[in-house]
Amino acid sequence: MKLKFLGATGTVTGSKYLLTSGTHHILVDCGLFQGHKELRLRNRHPFPVAPAGIDAVVLTHAHLDHSGYLPLLVKNGFTGKIFCSPATFDLCKILLPDSGRLQEEEANYANRHGFSKHAPALPLYSEADAVRALRQFAPVPFDTPFAIAGELQGQLALAGHILGAAIVSVRCAGKTVVFSGDLGRPNDPLMVAPAAIAEADFLVVESTYGDKRHDPADPLLLLGQTIRDTVARGGVTIIPAFAVGRAQALLYDLHRLKEQGAIPAHLPVYLNSPMAADATALYQKHLHCHRLSHEQCFAMRHAATIVNSVEESIALNERQVPMVIVAASGMATGGRVLHHLKAFAPDPRNTILFAGFQAGGTRGALMLAGCASIKIHGQYVPVRARVAQIANLSAHADGDELIGWMSHLRRAPRRTFITHGESAAADALRRRIGEELGWPCEVPGYLDEVTLA
């Protein structure tokens, strides 16, 4: 077997791994690059292998940095099956068409306002392209072997992280390659702990927080304090949030804060993401993927007023009263949150609260670094609002938790590949694995190919 790294090297985005066995080629994950411009431009480069020559795709989970390139892969000739968990399929039915629709809207907006360098600006793919890609999905249950292509056999195990997230094991000719995907945390209040994996001849492990140890303080306390301080200033709390995973965790936390009396019971809370609202409804369908009861799921779904229409979204920007707005996207790379940032970032009474990792080059990372202004829709918007972050709300395991998960393996993998992390994080985890576990490990580069022998 050969393994080629088509993404998630030196970055936390663009996850794609090409696994070759004989004449068969499969992809594990098929995500979009996000963040720095040079990364985003890779989405428009010719794919490193002919899409028509790929037999199948196996997804770890639904986040767009793992699934968002699929519509373009199908558009360019891929005709094979896309294997994933049932919950991942349900989420992709929401996420992928929305991604295509958003790209069309942003291209149209750029063309109408003339701020694109391209004439005309074109979407990477359309909503219709995404709908076509969904026809090739083939959901499979957890913990059940399935045939991928030729002698390649797959199996999914619960990864925590978000609804439906999986650790992917691929077996062929007596060897097992394990892809961690994005690993959740063992004591996450919503998601189940990642499954323990006993055997891996080769391991591909994420390193998003490979150089970090999450603050043990209760993030609920910081969330409550931040909102109370903003209310006292008469301001609005804007929380950019991933529509899948983070938005649901925040809704549940906001419900708990009101229930505890830690924030005013009458404080308006808005979820300005129809996609996030749809994703939240899936938690009651897939109870085995998380820790919440039916009753808790109901409370989470009703913790906020859902903003559906564009008109309702625009109307929020006219309200100058204390409120909380949770809106996608989580790194402020697109979506409705951009319009809220344009409206509320210039006012020092307000707070922009980031709840998790911000990839380099994203607006979220720039604001946390203290930029005085950010570029939105071709214009620079001053940032006078307070900018804060609750890093330990993350749905990713930290360095200690990654080492703890790997320690369940009964023997050292022949080779361990560290991916899905910025350079410092990946290298820090490489050193820890070598020093603490004694395993041979390496940090691959973009388009590196290795023989698994």
Automatic annotation (TrEMBL):
The keyword Hydrolase applies. Keywords: Hydrolase. Pfam families: Beta-Casp (PF10996), Lactamase_B (PF00753), RMMBL (PF07521). It comes from the Bacteria. Residues 13-235 form the Metallo-beta-lactamase domain. Transmembrane segments: none annotated. SMART domains: Beta-Casp, Lactamase_B. Residues 247-367 form the Beta-Casp domain. PANTHER family: CLEAVAGE AND POLYADENYLATION SPECIFICITY FACTOR FAMILY MEMBER, INTEGRATOR COMPLEX SUBUNIT 11. This is MBL fold metallo-hydrolase.
